[in-house]
Design goal:
By secondary structure, the protein is of the alpha/beta class. The chain is 55% helix and 15% strand. The protein has a single domain (39-182), classed as Glucose-6-phosphate isomerase like protein, domain 1 (Rossmann fold, 3-Layer(aba) Sandwich), CATH 3.40.50.10490. The chain contains eight helices and six strands; from the N terminus they run H-E-H-E-H-E-H-H-E-H-E-H-E-H.
Length: 186
């Protein structure tokens, strides 16, 4: 088996095993979660809303990639947030909400915490701040289950793999499926 075939096999296994908690905190089928995201995305397109991607460290390039993909492929303003909002928030959800508002966040917009890009405590602060603004929250995590994130995230995807490259590939698949759902191609 080649390295590429092995990676594909691991990604397929992880995609099959990926779990999701829905807006009410109960288990939700991944397909239903993607449909929910597609509906929210179409609402954003109608209302000129935004999707904010939180990515720090290794998640920073992905946040920029996903933000650009949303704008280019479905016409939704995608905004990549790096380290600055975390420094400004200083561990306070109220300050996190103020910081997001300065980036033109508004109720109904979506904030996505990318997989393992932020320490859980920092991710929790930003997601709590987003929830205070009335934003919808989505989190990707390898922790099964990451209850602090699951308590805040309207959708929380659990990707069961210790391989960071596999997790990144699964996250890419989920975001690509979301874009396809917004475009009505699912």
């Amino acid at each position: 088996m080649t390295a590429l075939e092995r990676h594909r096999s691991l990604v397929d296994q992880a995609l099959t095993a990926t779990a999701c908690l829905g807006p009410d905190g109960s288990p939700m089928h991944v397909e239903a979660a993607v449909d929910w995201l597609g509906t929210r995305g179409r609402e954003l397109r109608r209302t000129s809303g935004s999707v904010f991607f939180i990515g720090v460290g290794a998640g920073d390039p992905q946040s920029h990639h996903f933000a650009a993909a949303f704008y280019r492929r479905v016409g939704i303003r995608g905004i990549a947030l790096g380290e600055t909002p975390f420094r400004t928030a200083q561990g306070d959800p109220a300050r996190a909400a103020e910081t997001l508002a300065q980036w033109f966040a508004r109720p109904g917009d979506i904030v996505v915490d990318l997989l393992e890009s932020t320490p859980p405590a920092r991710a929790r602060v930003m997601l709590e701040g987003a929830a205070r603004l009335g934003m919808r929250t989505v989190a990707f995590t390898r922790r099964l289950p990451d209850l602090p994130l699951a308590a805040i995230g309207q959708l929380t995807f659990f990707i069961p793999s210790d391989d960071v490259c596999v997790c990144d590939s699964v996250q890419h698949c989920m975001v690509s499926a979301w874009i396809a759902a917004v475009r009505g191609q699912r």
